[in-house]
Design brief:
The protein has one domain. Helices cover about 35% and strands about 25% of the residues. Strands 1, 2, 3, 4 and 5 form a five-stranded antiparallel beta sheet that branches. Strand 1 and strand 2 form a beta hairpin. Helix 2 packs across helix 3.
Length: about 160
């Protein structure tokens, strides 16, 4: 799949928020890779919304690129046109968070959000109560890994590659 919407490269993540709940996707192969890489089998996903002005600007950049690529005049028309004409994107796909969100918004509504995405990793063999040491020897058994963005990412230029 090419970049059908001519989107810029980013070090950030899009997700949908609906009725106060986060709607996002888990990719089993990615989780398996992280389990092997970090020696863990238990983790929680973390999202950190970008500062409001940064989020607003990046979302607008992506919306305008999509509208231009699809020759539409409104975001609502863009979402419908994308859903109707890009059937191959209807199944959520890793590395296509913006496109995944377009499909989710079309099908179920919600608000597009932007920021950082990562994992809070709980290494095997650790127990805070008994003071066990993490097998990696580098942490207390709980580690954070930011796959996209991170705490230091605050500005548009931080997120755009």
């Amino acid at each position: 799949m090419g970049n059908a919407l001519n989107l810029p490269s980013i070090d950030g993540h899009f997700w949908v928020e609906r009725d106060g709940e986060i709607v996002d996707w888990t990719y089993e192969k990615f989780n398996e890779h992280l389990s092997e890489l970090y020696g863990c089998s238990d983790f929680l996903t973390m999202r950190l919304e970008a500062p409001p002005e940064t989020s607003k600007i990046i979302i607008e950049i992506f919306k305008k690129r999509a509208m231009t690529a699809l020759n539409t005049t409104s975001w609502e028309d863009t979402v419908k046109h994308f859903y109707d004409n890009f059937i191959e994107y209807r199944t959520p796909t890793q590395g296509r968070c913006f496109e995944n969100c377009i499909i989710e918004i079309y099908k179920n509504g919600g608000e597009l959000k932007f920021g950082s995405w990562g994992l809070e990793i709980f290494h095997e063999g650790t127990d805070e109560d008994d003071g066990a040491v993490c097998p990696c020897g580098k942490c207390d058994g709980i580690d954070e890994h930011w796959e996209y963005g991170g705490y230091a990412y605050k500005t548009v230029s931080d997120f755009l590659n």
